[in-house]
Amino acid sequence: CLHQAGESLPISLNAVERAQARQFKDLRHRLEHYSRLDDLDEIRRVKRLGMRVTITAQMERSPGPNRDRRFPRYATLIREGLEPVLISDSTGTIARASPLIGIAGVVAPQSEGGWSPEGEAPTLEQAVAMWTIWAARAQHEEAHKGSIEVGKLGDFVVLSGDIDRHPGGKLF
Are 27 and 58 in contact (CB under 8 A)? Predict the structure, then answer.
């Protein structure tokens, strides 16, 4: 389910709800590039519908005429049981798009130079899950991707230091 800024979110949610009522399958509908999920009732409805939310974190950090700096509410989405997915499909529009920069950006609140509104930064473990296992689940690919296990496809990186020992803003 593609939801564009400016459209009414309930229209997208109604469409998914009707599709599931007509013929329920183990589908994982998604709100693509949707960081503006703010209302708790809508968050809970998205959860009840089994939907996923994908967020291009690097795009959300840049101020602009349509950017409200209180979004995205990562910690709230996670507390409500959603598994938000961070993506970097910027196709060259973001100069430095990478999962490591994305992880660093979301675990740090804006007061530390990060991208998360105050009180909405996920933990490091949650941020890594947003790029890995939660992303794989959103695509029905968790049996093949998303975690380092025998028989799964995988990419991994070896870092020179322990990123868990740095406050979010020091990861940049």
Answer: no
DSSP strands (E only) in the chain: 30-31, 52-55, 85-86
Give the pTM: 0.81
pLDDT one digit per residue (tens) for the chain, 172 residues: 444 444 578 888 898 888 888 877 777 888 887 778 888 999 999 999 999 999 887 665 555 555 555 578 999 999 999 999 998 766 666 666 678 888 888 998 888 888 888 999 999 999 999 999 999 999 999 999 999 899 999 877 787 777 777 666 565 4
Q: What is the DSSP letter of 99?
A: H
Identity (one letter) of the amino acid at 14? N
Alpha carbons 111 and 117: distance in angstroms, whole number? 8
